[in-house]
Records
---
Amino acid sequence: MEEKLMIPKWVNKHNELYTAATRHPFTLSIRDGSVVFSAFKLWLGQDYIFVRAFVPFVASLLLKAWKESDDDSDVEVILGGIAALNDEISWFKREASKWSVSLSSIVPQKANLEYCRFLESITSPEVEYTVAVTAFWAIEAVYQESYAHCLSDGAKTPEELKETCQRWGNDGFGQYCHTLQNIANRRLEKSPEDIVLKAEAMVIRVLEYEVEFWNMSRGET
Ligand code: HMH
């Protein structure tokens, strides 16, 4: 069957990279129960820094949606995303305290710094709304797919990590990612070729950064 929607088409076309990001050895180790807790703690501290940098990116996306979108509900969806991030930051603080991770002394690793710098670069007004919302979908979808897999049939995820997996792996978050994908697909359908090409390149870059981010927790970066 010929796929008309751009995102499913790209997921198919770049399946190897998509799978590298969503079935990474680190999240697979959570799923099979072999995860080393020190690796999880490293991820926790690094992701807290990432999420703090993610907020201004989503704020810039909100501004773009408000200015450029043809559908008022986009702003509401993104605002919901910002509200969820507010909650997420509180969750990171609680979770870090449970694991005795001191968030104030976390030093961002190279892969994290590079990803955060990239996020900052795409807050620029020169990045079109369609391209930015596609990036947003990709960033959220990697976590949704990765952590939902840790809760699926046959998973041996340690009890201590189930709440983390629930955070991104729950059905509500899955629905939210689907809504983001619908927004991106709708915009891409109406976009000229150059924007579509930029959005595809954006998906590839996000997936590459996500793989590098997970790699930190394997001690490879
Ligand atoms: C690195 N990517 C990374 N961290 C996150 N928290 C998300 C995506 C999803 O919010």
---
Amino acid sequence: EDPPLFHFSEVPSTQNWLKERLESNAFPPATAVVAERQTAGRGRPGNTWHHLPGNLAMSLWIPQDKTRMALPWTILTAHSVLLVLERAMGKVFGIKYPNDIIILESGLKVGGILVESMGEKGDLIGIGLNRNTPPISGAGGMVVSGKPLPPGPLELPFWIQNVILEHFGGGFSAQDLLSFLDDRLLWKGQWISFSEGGRGARIGKILGLGERGHLRVLDPQGIEFLLPVTVRDVRR
Ligand code: BTN
């Protein structure tokens, strides 16, 4: 009853691979697909996602009945990916709200999350990581979800899949999860500008994560407002 993890040397896009098959197949929740190479990876709307050797490309399917929780999947996925990366790599990662995965100390982007709603068919989660780092070693004793770590290139995807599964069962308290991510927010406490849909730039100071996974921001008049996860871009 463990969800499958399909593994390919090359597909155009793991996101599209799952999307196409969901039309006519029934998959268990958190079914994942991993590709060593993508030839037509997609980033957030309108962007291509370029694939460099060694990159991780992964998509997971979340059925709709698993999505009715207080926190959006972008947030749950960021938490899952950071948890796994930190355990595996022994350094602190963070998020540039809401979709970019960064190395916290440098702010460098190492990956991105793309969550696509398919209406009543649920959500597709896409994770791309620039993994031009040495293979993960010294992690052999680590266990996620009580399962031992399998060797090989599927280590990280397998871990991520398992943490996502733990989210289904309410394996993490929302409070712990939000405070974990709150400690890992790029530019927290700093003034930034961001664009929201077509509404132009707005200036604010990042205060932290709100209880629904929104970004709490202070405007120049000292008034706090919330930024939803759909925000397109945040810049210093
Ligand atoms: C971003 O724009 O930062 C999000 C990038 C998401 C890329 C991943 S790679 C696996 C999955 N398949 C795709 O075609 N895109 C996502």
